[in-house]
Hints:
Layout: H1 5-25, E1 40-44, E2 55-59, E3 62-66, E4 71-75, E5 90-92, E6 97-103, E7 109-115, E8 123-129, E9 144-148, E10 154-162, E11 173-179, E12 189-195, E13 210-213, E14 221-225, E15 230-234, E16 237-241, E17 256-259, E18 268-271, E19 277-284, E20 294-301, E21 307-313, E22 323-333, E23 336-347, E24 350-362, E25 368-370, E26 379-381, E27 389-392, E28 398-403, E29 408-414
Antiparallel strand pairs: 1-29, 2-3, 3-4, 4-5, 6-7, 7-8, 8-9, 10-11, 11-12, 12-13, 14-15, 14-17, 15-16, 18-19, 19-20, 20-21, 22-23, 23-24, 24-25, 24-26, 27-28, 28-29
Amino acid sequence: MRRSAVSILASVLFLGLSLGVQYAQAAAGALDTTFGTNGTTVTSVANADAILNSMLALSDDNILVFTGGAALLQYTSNGALDTSFGSKGVVALSTPITGSLAVQPNGQIVLGGVVTPSGGGAELGAERLNSNGTLDTSFGSGGVAVVSLGTRAPNVGTAVLLYPASAPDGGDILVCTTLISAGRHLPYQTALARFTPSGQPDTTFGTQGLSIQTGVSGCTALALLSTGDILVVNTNEVAQFNSSGVAESTVTGGTILATSQSSSTFEASIFDPSGDFLFGSELFVGEESRAHNSSAQVQRFSQTGAQVADATFHYVGSGGSGIQAIVQAVAAQGNFVVAAGGQTTFAQSGETTVNGLARLQVQSNGSLTLDPTFGSGGTLVNNLPASSGVVIQSTGKIVTAGFAGNGSLTLARYLGK
Length: 417
């Protein structure tokens, strides 16, 4: 049966419109409607008012969210709580730990950071869970390994690094934190603890597994060199420690075998695939305490601490007096760097805050530029409470996480291409 010209034209128009819709949906930076409900998923988390940050990691593209020490959640790659993990996707930690997370090759999950024992004081340690969220009771003492920090008080900045099996001290777990100064006019310090694969303090490291050094006065990211030396980053500075935990006089860098995987909110430092490290922050114009005039900034440094590149931006508009833009989390994959943060406008009528994303490209000369194919000229505003954690899946899709004022954890996923 022959079709009329009108029918054929209608079909062509329908096909064109369909392709146009698909093209619009495929734009980099658009919410991925196959994730959760129209691109987002919301979960109520107990005690969320006490949660300061959220950190993300991937386990075979499942999404792990560590909510500042109180709970660990796992979502499937498409945004549904993984009911095979913990209790319907949520693990309430029996031993709360404030820090970072990493995933072992066998799927076990390591949480590293500061533990506050019931008797007071503070400990630096690691907690290990099986891939289904149950505590690995064979690790340390009942699943937790710690060394005492004595009377020293920790501050913002933690990281955890897993030693590859092929590396010197293979299978060990290295945890770091920042310690407040021990006395007036003294600097903050870096505390490093290393544990064996079974969760015992590694007595070949520091003093009974613990090393406290001035270093760079803290810790926000870690890298392991092929020599066994350790690079310790504190925001935009780097120090090198030998395999025994002693700070060296110079930073030489070298071949990196492993790095920490997540960044702390407001202390967003990570290593990128090239071995350089990135720091996301804000750049003030004029005095910091006046006019709130700042831009979001991502800086890139070589292993020895030399600045290679930087990029400044606003998530919307061009900034100015009364506008503050910050970076709260960074992630890197290939030649892309993603920064998640927020932007606040201060006015007599009150404050207005939006959350946003920026995607940067690492150019052949090492410079950082906004990716014009992403969002609107490289940035976007998501208007969701999802800016305190970010991760890039193997597909290039970008997942962000953050908490709303009502204690709800929101995840959102954006198309990468």
